[in-house]
Amino acid sequence: MGSVVLPHLVTGWHVDQAILSEEERLVVIRFGRDWDADCMRQDEVLYRIADRVKNFAVLYVCDLDQVPDFKQMYELYDPVTLMFFFRNKHMMCDFGTGNNNKLNWVLEDKQELIDIIETIYRGAKKGRGLVVSPKDYSTRYRY
Amino acid sequence: MSGRKDFLSQIAPENYVAGLGRGATGFTTRSDLGPAREGPSEDQIKEALAKRAAQLGAAPPTAYGATEKKEEDDDDDRFQDPENETGLFANGQFDRDDDEADRIYQDIDERMEKRRKSRREAREAQERADYEANNPKIQQQFADLKRSLASVSEEDWANLPEAGDLTRKNKRTKTEARNRFYAVPDSVIAGARDSTQMDTSVVDDGSTNGAGGDAMDGTMTNFADIGAARDKVLQVRLDQAAQSGGADSTSGIATNIDPKGYLTSLSKSELKAGEVEVGDINRVRALLESVIKTNSRHAPGYLALSRLEELAGKIVAARNVIAKGCEICGSQSEDIWLEAIRLSSGGDNHNGKVIAANALKAQPQSTRLWIQAMELENTIPGKKRVMRKAADFLSKSVVIWKEMIKLEDSEQDAKLLLAKATEEIPLSVELWLAYARLVAQTETPENAQKVLNKARLANPSSHLVWIAASRLAEETGKGNPEQIIRRAIQSLARENAMLKREEWVQEAEKCETEGAIKTAACLIRETLGYGLDDDDDDRKNIWMEDAQGSISRGRYETARAIYAYALRVYFTSRKLWRAAVDLEKAHGTPEALFQLMEKSVEAVPNDEGLWMMYAREKWRTNELDEARKILGRAFNQNPESESIYLSAFQLEADNHQISAARELLRTARQEASTDRVWYKSVAFERQQGDNEAALDLCQQALNTFPSCWKLHALKGQIYTSKGQIPQAREAYNVGTRACPAAVPLFILLSRLEEASGVVVKARSVLERGLMSSPKSAELRLEAIRVERRAGNIPQAKVLMAKALQALPSSGLLWSESIWHLEPRTQRKPRSLEAIKKCDNDPTLFVTVARVFWNERKLDKAANWFEKAIVLDADLGDTWAWYVKFLMQHGTEEKRREVVEKCVANEPRHGEVWQRVRKEPANKALGTEEVLKRVVRLLDEEEKGRGG
């Protein structure tokens, strides 16, 4: 359901434009495939929070089959990946999982996701490149 | 969502490379999953472009770029032609338009290729055929022969002969390889040389004879032998050291070395042929031999080698070497011939003459060789013969002519030769002058004059000829040097051959040394103003400097002429007059001095100094009346001058004309009533012993000049000498109040108090003085001394510390501190500190000298005394200390010399000196007597302190 409503980025150019065009807000892009079950779950959550974070974040989805350009560059080999950009800068977040570059599991708790986005936004506004997630996910998800 | 962004509904541009527009870079994670570090690289971009194009089903984007590139992938980018770079724009955006353009160009190229294809190919084939016909390959040339090889049978092949070395090429290369030469290394040469040589450094005295048997086979090491040999070497060394140490140092200890003789003895020992290390000579010989071998036409190499052989004592070898050198490079180097001649000398000069003949055959143009050949001849006629021959070859050589003339004893012949020489070399001024001198000696001055005239015609730009003419005129008294010099200057100026002013002064000085005083004076008169502007203010200084320079070189006549000229230009310059007078006083006759002084006072009648100097000179020559007259004239010119009054008074007083002196002072007091006149009057009366009159005058003087501290001091001293202590104290007190800055008054007062036993009061007086003049070293010193004399050493030390803090650069204070307040061991470090603080204080220097004296470092002490005297010759104490030092350690002459110098310098200052000088009883003493007294006083003081 969420996959339909959230704006899609259909080419690499659109992805770049989405990242470049936002001056004040955090850009959150979900890389994955719309037909994937994990993706659908994640998109549902994203759709739910989209309105609540609209003041400081904008959410996009991007189909990896449609836009394979970033697969190698961003190592997009997971079914679902959330990435964060602020003013054309890739924002990192220490989730405790060992991969600070992206959020590559399905996070279904809405408030947790909002907290993460807000934390990253605040850090980004202060000029940080890496923020620490409000919650440690190291024990919950395996790698 | 807050509104859709525009770009979401736009179409992406064609051939866009993702991430390129925003410069995205990848990242590496801990679980490195692929090459993600870089953003899209160049290759990636190109690949992406090609891939996309393939996906879209279109042709490859460029006719030249990506696809072609793949084929020649092994070609490195580095080898690209920079002029014609492919893929130059590969980084840019490549859109459909570019692609179309590329395609069109490709079409055109293909079409142009096709258009005249057949015709062009035909033409190219034709050209190739032509070329091959003109330049046939070897293969083609032998094509027909090759074809006939088909008919060669199996047997023929087997019977083919072996290829022999018909051209002998192989043999040649082999022999060449065998005949190759290599440079022999120096080590081999040295080894070969040493193999046949005897080593004489250790003399075998037979001590190893017994051990000879086991030493022979070399399997055993005889330690006893080694030890003996070492002892031997040491002994030789020691003997050598003892010898070179000199015969006078009998002690023979190695440390006992005479520092002056050491170096000379070193150089001497090095030059002794027998003592030079044989190894050194061998090494140098090998070097020099290789020099000669590598560059056989290098004369200095032969020279050096022959010198070496000579040094080694092998004179025959040296001669051989030099002979070889002469043979090889005799036509280039004179030196080698000269060396050969030198080496051949010994006994008769026969060999030398032969060599010289050869040398002159090789180099007939060498003056040096001719001279050498001449010197080889023993007899005068022989020498003459050689020189005459030389003159045939070298008729333009001044040296040859001069030698020839020197050989002639008869003046007539010499004259003839000179005439011939001047004819041959008219430009040699030297020869002309010699000729003229000879003519002047033997014939009439007129003839000399003629010679000089000829010389002048030949050398119009030579000033020497003119000067010689002038000197001739001066010597013979015929002709006017002045006129000659004037004409000389005119003609030289015409010829643009004028010397610089300084050079003229030098010429004048030279003339003076050779006795031609008039010429010197004329030269100065004519040339001193040359090259200087008439309105140049510096002229005076320049002339003064010239004169000073001449005086310092001892050329007083020249200096006199310079002053005369300068005074003619600056008639009223006091400075010049004084300088001229000083010159006359130091180096002239009294008559000349008086003449000059007379002129000077006429020129500058207002200069009191000149008048006084004049009077004093007259007085010194015991012409008292003259002196009086001069002073009278001075009074007329300067009616109110106190110094003239005072000098007149001094004149009378020194000649014991008491009443006249008194009279003069009285008029002076009326005419020029200054404090100095009054003070002198009082002092005069006191010296005469008339204390009452002195006191009276003093009182009068103080009414008009209450702020003259000298008058106060005099008054106090008069009272003291009369024994009226309270009055004296009163006088000093009034004085200190009237002139609080007068340091001596405070000191006098404190001494008075101290003498009457009231140290407390003395202390307070000095403190009062210090309040008004805190920077006075004398006051502080007196305060310290008061404490010291009262036996209060700690207090004195405290005061000294304070004083040194306030006045760290006072030599007086330092001296006192070093000498009286420091323990003996501390004196030297303290003096060092003091010298660092104040490096130019004569008092301190004397103290340092005395410290050295105490430590018996007499050289240093004398040195420091000299330094102190140079620093301030007006300080009598320094002289006294030095004389005292010399009385103990100096020679009689040195002492006399110092005393004389002291008298000449007339010192007037110094603590003890002034005390002795100012004593009324000592007024008639000369400087020398005062010096003696001061020395005696110093002695007494020292003894008193020592006791």
TrEMBL record, chain A:
Keywords assigned by UniProt, alphabetized: mRNA processing, mRNA splicing, Nucleus
Annotated gene: DIB1
Location(s) in or outside the cell: Nucleus
Highest taxon listed in the record's lineage: Eukaryota
First and last residue of the signal peptide: none
Protein's name according to its UniProt entry: Spliceosomal protein DIB1
Any GO CC annotation of this UniProt entry: U4/U6 x U5 tri-snRNP complex
Biological-process GO terms, alphabetical: mRNA splicing, via spliceosome
Family statement drawn from the similarity comment of this UniProt entry: Belongs to the DIM1 family.
Main subcellular location: nucleus
Species name: Alectoria fallacina
Described purpose of this protein according to its UniProt entry: Essential role in pre-mRNA splicing. Also essential for entry into mitosis (G2/M progression) as well as for chromosome segregation during mitosis.
SMART domains reported for this sequence: DIM1 (SM01410)
From TrEMBL, chain B:
One annotated Gene Ontology cellular component of this protein: U4/U6 x U5 tri-snRNP complex
Domain PRP1 splicing factor N-terminal: 12-169
Gene Ontology biological-process entries: spliceosomal tri-snRNP complex assembly
Span list, region Disordered: 19-131
Protein name: PRP1 splicing factor N-terminal domain-containing protein
Record organism: Letharia columbiana
Keywords noted in UniProt: mRNA processing, mRNA splicing, Nucleus, Repeat
Entry keyword annotation includes Mitochondrion: no
InterPro entries associated with the record: HAT, HAT_PRP39_C, PRP1_N, Syf1-like, TPR-like_helical_dom_sf, TPR_rpt
Signal peptide per UniProt: none
Subcellular location: Nucleus
